[in-house]
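<instruction>
Derive C-alpha coordinates from the sequence
<data>
Labelled lines for chain and fold
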Amino acid sequence: MAKQTNYIAKTPDANGVINYSEEEHSVWSDLFKQQQANIQQYAADVYLDGLEKLAMPDDRIPQCDEISRHLEPLTGWSVAPVPALISFGRFFKTLSEKTFPAASFIRSRADFDYIKEPDIFHEIFGHTPLLTDPSFAYFSETIGKIGLQVEPSDYSWLIRLYWFTIEFGLLKQNGIYKALGSGLNSSPTELIYSVDSPVPERREFNVIDILRTPYRIDIHQPIYYVIDKIDDLLQVAERDLQSDIKKAQSLGLFENTFIPMNETKRTA
Protein backbone atom coordinates (compact mmCIF):
# COMPACT_ATOMS: atom_id res chain seq x y z
CA MET A 1 0.00 0.00 0.00
CA ALA A 2 1.33 3.40 -0.88
CA LYS A 3 2.01 5.45 2.21
CA GLN A 4 0.66 8.78 1.02
CA THR A 5 -1.91 10.62 3.08
CA ASN A 6 -3.19 14.14 3.62
CA TYR A 7 -3.70 13.42 7.31
CA ILE A 8 -1.46 12.90 10.32
CA ALA A 9 -2.08 9.87 12.51
CA LYS A 10 -3.00 10.49 16.14
CA THR A 11 -0.67 8.99 18.74
CA PRO A 12 -1.99 7.55 22.04
CA ASP A 13 -0.71 9.18 25.24
CA ALA A 14 1.00 7.35 28.09
CA ASN A 15 -2.37 5.96 29.17
CA GLY A 16 -3.18 4.69 25.70
CA VAL A 17 -5.73 7.44 25.09
CA ILE A 18 -5.94 9.44 21.87
CA ASN A 19 -6.89 13.04 22.55
CA TYR A 20 -9.18 14.63 19.97
CA SER A 21 -10.16 18.26 19.67
CA GLU A 22 -13.69 19.57 20.13
CA GLU A 23 -13.92 20.12 16.37
CA GLU A 24 -12.87 16.54 15.70
CA HIS A 25 -15.51 15.25 18.12
CA SER A 26 -18.01 17.53 16.39
CA VAL A 27 -17.21 16.02 12.98
CA TRP A 28 -17.79 12.52 14.39
CA SER A 29 -21.07 13.60 15.95
CA ASP A 30 -22.36 15.19 12.75
CA LEU A 31 -21.33 12.18 10.64
CA PHE A 32 -22.90 9.77 13.11
CA LYS A 33 -26.19 11.63 13.27
CA GLN A 34 -26.37 12.05 9.49
CA GLN A 35 -25.75 8.36 8.88
CA GLN A 36 -28.32 7.20 11.41
CA ALA A 37 -31.24 8.07 9.16
CA ASN A 38 -29.55 6.59 6.09
CA ILE A 39 -28.51 3.26 7.58
CA GLN A 40 -31.97 2.56 8.96
CA GLN A 41 -33.23 2.58 5.40
CA TYR A 42 -30.29 1.21 3.42
CA ALA A 43 -28.07 -0.94 5.68
CA ALA A 44 -28.36 -4.71 6.11
CA ASP A 45 -29.80 -5.99 9.37
CA VAL A 46 -26.53 -7.73 10.30
CA TYR A 47 -24.82 -4.32 10.28
CA LEU A 48 -27.59 -2.59 12.24
CA ASP A 49 -27.61 -5.37 14.84
CA GLY A 50 -23.85 -5.03 15.27
CA LEU A 51 -24.02 -1.27 15.63
CA GLU A 52 -26.56 -1.66 18.42
CA LYS A 53 -24.41 -4.23 20.22
CA LEU A 54 -21.38 -1.93 20.25
CA ALA A 55 -23.29 0.99 21.80
CA MET A 56 -20.79 3.52 20.46
CA PRO A 57 -21.24 7.18 21.46
CA ASP A 58 -22.81 9.59 19.00
CA ASP A 59 -21.36 12.76 20.52
CA ARG A 60 -17.63 11.97 20.57
CA ILE A 61 -14.99 9.77 18.96
CA PRO A 62 -14.73 6.52 20.93
CA GLN A 63 -11.39 5.05 21.96
CA CYS A 64 -10.44 1.76 20.36
CA ASP A 65 -10.36 0.10 23.79
CA GLU A 66 -13.99 1.06 24.33
CA ILE A 67 -15.04 -0.73 21.17
CA SER A 68 -12.85 -3.72 21.96
CA ARG A 69 -14.53 -4.20 25.33
CA HIS A 70 -17.87 -4.72 23.58
CA LEU A 71 -16.45 -6.63 20.62
CA GLU A 72 -14.13 -9.18 22.23
CA PRO A 73 -16.82 -11.09 24.18
CA LEU A 74 -18.82 -11.51 20.96
CA THR A 75 -16.23 -12.74 18.44
CA GLY A 76 -12.81 -12.40 20.05
CA TRP A 77 -11.88 -9.39 17.90
CA SER A 78 -10.31 -6.17 19.09
CA VAL A 79 -9.45 -2.79 17.54
CA ALA A 80 -6.06 -1.09 17.57
CA PRO A 81 -5.06 2.36 16.25
CA VAL A 82 -2.62 2.51 13.32
CA PRO A 83 -1.40 5.12 10.81
CA ALA A 84 -3.83 5.91 8.00
CA LEU A 85 -2.18 3.65 5.44
CA ILE A 86 -0.26 0.50 6.32
CA SER A 87 1.44 -2.18 4.24
CA PHE A 88 -0.54 -5.13 2.94
CA GLY A 89 1.70 -7.42 4.98
CA ARG A 90 0.93 -5.62 8.24
CA PHE A 91 -2.74 -5.37 7.32
CA PHE A 92 -3.09 -9.10 6.71
CA LYS A 93 -1.15 -9.92 9.87
CA THR A 94 -3.44 -7.87 12.09
CA LEU A 95 -6.54 -9.44 10.56
CA SER A 96 -5.07 -12.91 11.07
CA GLU A 97 -4.68 -12.03 14.77
CA LYS A 98 -8.32 -10.92 14.99
CA THR A 99 -7.32 -7.31 15.45
CA PHE A 100 -8.81 -4.62 13.26
CA PRO A 101 -6.29 -1.86 12.38
CA ALA A 102 -8.10 1.46 12.74
CA ALA A 103 -6.76 4.71 11.32
CA SER A 104 -6.67 7.14 14.24
CA PHE A 105 -7.46 10.50 12.57
CA ILE A 106 -10.86 11.84 11.55
CA ARG A 107 -11.68 13.60 8.29
CA SER A 108 -11.89 17.37 7.99
CA ARG A 109 -15.06 19.25 7.10
CA ALA A 110 -13.71 19.60 3.57
CA ASP A 111 -13.85 15.79 3.20
CA PHE A 112 -17.08 15.37 5.15
CA ASP A 113 -19.11 13.65 2.41
CA TYR A 114 -16.35 11.61 0.79
CA ILE A 115 -12.84 10.68 1.84
CA LYS A 116 -10.48 8.43 -0.09
CA GLU A 117 -8.47 7.52 2.99
CA PRO A 118 -9.78 5.38 5.85
CA ASP A 119 -10.44 7.57 8.88
CA ILE A 120 -11.64 6.67 12.37
CA PHE A 121 -15.29 7.15 11.40
CA HIS A 122 -14.98 4.70 8.52
CA GLU A 123 -13.04 2.22 10.66
CA ILE A 124 -15.22 2.29 13.78
CA PHE A 125 -18.66 3.15 12.44
CA GLY A 126 -18.22 1.22 9.19
CA HIS A 127 -16.17 -1.86 10.08
CA THR A 128 -16.61 -2.84 13.70
CA PRO A 129 -20.39 -3.52 13.68
CA LEU A 130 -19.82 -6.26 11.10
CA LEU A 131 -17.13 -7.84 13.26
CA THR A 132 -19.78 -8.62 15.88
CA ASP A 133 -21.15 -11.27 13.49
CA PRO A 134 -19.34 -14.64 13.77
CA SER A 135 -19.53 -15.41 10.03
CA PHE A 136 -18.21 -12.02 9.03
CA ALA A 137 -15.54 -12.09 11.71
CA TYR A 138 -14.33 -15.53 10.61
CA PHE A 139 -14.25 -14.45 6.97
CA SER A 140 -12.18 -11.38 7.90
CA GLU A 141 -9.74 -13.51 9.88
CA THR A 142 -9.43 -15.92 6.94
CA ILE A 143 -8.56 -13.09 4.56
CA GLY A 144 -5.73 -12.18 6.92
CA LYS A 145 -4.43 -15.74 7.20
CA ILE A 146 -4.49 -16.28 3.42
CA GLY A 147 -2.70 -12.96 3.01
CA LEU A 148 0.18 -14.29 5.12
CA GLN A 149 0.43 -17.39 2.94
CA VAL A 150 0.42 -15.89 -0.55
CA GLU A 151 3.24 -14.11 -2.36
CA PRO A 152 3.32 -10.29 -2.38
CA SER A 153 2.53 -10.46 -6.10
CA ASP A 154 -0.82 -12.01 -5.12
CA TYR A 155 -1.81 -9.26 -2.68
CA SER A 156 -3.67 -7.16 -5.23
CA TRP A 157 -5.72 -10.22 -6.25
CA LEU A 158 -6.69 -11.18 -2.70
CA ILE A 159 -7.52 -7.63 -1.71
CA ARG A 160 -10.24 -7.55 -4.39
CA LEU A 161 -12.12 -10.20 -2.42
CA TYR A 162 -11.87 -7.95 0.63
CA TRP A 163 -12.88 -4.89 -1.39
CA PHE A 164 -16.03 -6.34 -2.94
CA THR A 165 -17.28 -7.95 0.28
CA ILE A 166 -16.03 -6.30 3.48
CA GLU A 167 -15.73 -2.82 2.00
CA PHE A 168 -18.36 -2.63 -0.75
CA GLY A 169 -20.47 -5.77 -0.63
CA LEU A 170 -24.25 -5.76 -1.02
CA LEU A 171 -26.68 -8.22 0.57
CA LYS A 172 -30.01 -9.39 -0.84
CA GLN A 173 -32.33 -9.11 2.16
CA ASN A 174 -35.95 -10.13 1.72
CA GLY A 175 -35.54 -9.58 -2.01
CA ILE A 176 -34.20 -6.04 -1.56
CA TYR A 177 -30.63 -4.77 -1.95
CA LYS A 178 -29.09 -3.67 1.34
CA ALA A 179 -25.63 -2.26 2.04
CA LEU A 180 -23.29 -4.67 3.79
CA GLY A 181 -19.79 -3.28 3.32
CA SER A 182 -18.15 -0.78 5.64
CA GLY A 183 -17.23 1.55 2.79
CA LEU A 184 -20.94 1.92 2.07
CA ASN A 185 -22.34 2.20 5.58
CA SER A 186 -19.83 4.90 6.53
CA SER A 187 -20.37 6.94 3.34
CA PRO A 188 -23.00 9.69 3.31
CA THR A 189 -23.29 9.47 -0.48
CA GLU A 190 -22.32 5.98 -1.68
CA LEU A 191 -24.61 4.21 0.80
CA ILE A 192 -27.67 5.56 -1.00
CA TYR A 193 -26.08 5.28 -4.45
CA SER A 194 -25.19 1.61 -4.03
CA VAL A 195 -28.78 0.62 -3.27
CA ASP A 196 -30.94 3.09 -5.19
CA SER A 197 -28.99 4.27 -8.23
CA PRO A 198 -29.68 2.68 -11.63
CA VAL A 199 -26.10 3.46 -12.70
CA PRO A 200 -23.96 0.69 -11.09
CA GLU A 201 -24.05 -2.95 -12.14
CA ARG A 202 -25.00 -5.38 -9.38
CA ARG A 203 -23.52 -8.80 -10.06
CA GLU A 204 -24.21 -12.21 -8.60
CA PHE A 205 -21.58 -13.20 -6.05
CA ASN A 206 -18.80 -15.27 -7.60
CA VAL A 207 -15.34 -15.58 -6.05
CA ILE A 208 -13.41 -16.02 -9.30
CA ASP A 209 -15.22 -13.10 -10.92
CA ILE A 210 -14.52 -10.90 -7.91
CA LEU A 211 -10.81 -11.72 -8.01
CA ARG A 212 -10.77 -10.67 -11.67
CA THR A 213 -12.62 -7.35 -11.22
CA PRO A 214 -10.53 -4.15 -11.16
CA TYR A 215 -11.62 -1.32 -8.89
CA ARG A 216 -10.83 2.28 -8.10
CA ILE A 217 -10.70 3.95 -4.71
CA ASP A 218 -11.63 7.49 -5.71
CA ILE A 219 -15.09 7.01 -7.25
CA HIS A 220 -18.40 5.45 -6.40
CA GLN A 221 -18.12 1.86 -7.50
CA PRO A 222 -19.46 0.99 -10.98
CA ILE A 223 -19.85 -2.68 -9.92
CA TYR A 224 -21.14 -4.28 -6.73
CA TYR A 225 -21.31 -7.99 -5.90
CA VAL A 226 -24.36 -9.27 -4.03
CA ILE A 227 -24.44 -12.15 -1.54
CA ASP A 228 -27.71 -13.89 -0.63
CA LYS A 229 -27.01 -14.36 3.08
CA ILE A 230 -24.20 -13.53 5.47
CA ASP A 231 -23.39 -17.19 6.12
CA ASP A 232 -22.32 -17.49 2.48
CA LEU A 233 -19.08 -15.90 3.63
CA LEU A 234 -18.38 -19.01 5.70
CA GLN A 235 -18.43 -21.07 2.52
CA VAL A 236 -16.03 -18.63 0.88
CA ALA A 237 -13.70 -18.86 3.88
CA GLU A 238 -13.58 -22.65 3.51
CA ARG A 239 -12.58 -22.50 -0.17
CA ASP A 240 -9.02 -23.01 -1.39
CA LEU A 241 -8.54 -19.31 -1.96
CA GLN A 242 -4.93 -19.68 -3.04
CA SER A 243 -6.07 -21.93 -5.88
CA ASP A 244 -8.83 -19.46 -6.67
CA ILE A 245 -6.23 -16.72 -7.02
CA LYS A 246 -4.15 -18.84 -9.38
CA LYS A 247 -7.21 -19.60 -11.49
CA ALA A 248 -8.18 -15.94 -11.63
CA GLN A 249 -4.64 -15.02 -12.66
CA SER A 250 -4.72 -17.59 -15.46
CA LEU A 251 -7.96 -16.09 -16.75
CA GLY A 252 -6.78 -12.50 -16.36
CA LEU A 253 -8.54 -9.35 -15.25
CA PHE A 254 -11.86 -8.28 -16.67
CA GLU A 255 -11.83 -5.20 -18.87
CA ASN A 256 -11.97 -1.97 -16.90
CA THR A 257 -15.29 -0.18 -16.72
CA PHE A 258 -13.41 3.01 -15.84
CA ILE A 259 -10.07 4.74 -16.34
CA PRO A 260 -7.48 2.50 -14.61
CA MET A 261 -5.37 3.70 -11.72
CA ASN A 262 -2.80 2.32 -9.30
CA GLU A 263 -4.47 -0.21 -6.97
CA THR A 264 -2.08 0.03 -4.07
CA LYS A 265 -4.12 1.64 -1.33
CA ARG A 266 -6.75 0.45 1.10
CA THR A 267 -9.26 3.17 1.75
CA ALA A 268 -12.77 4.13 2.73
Notes: Residues 53 and 70 are 7 Å apart (CA to CA).
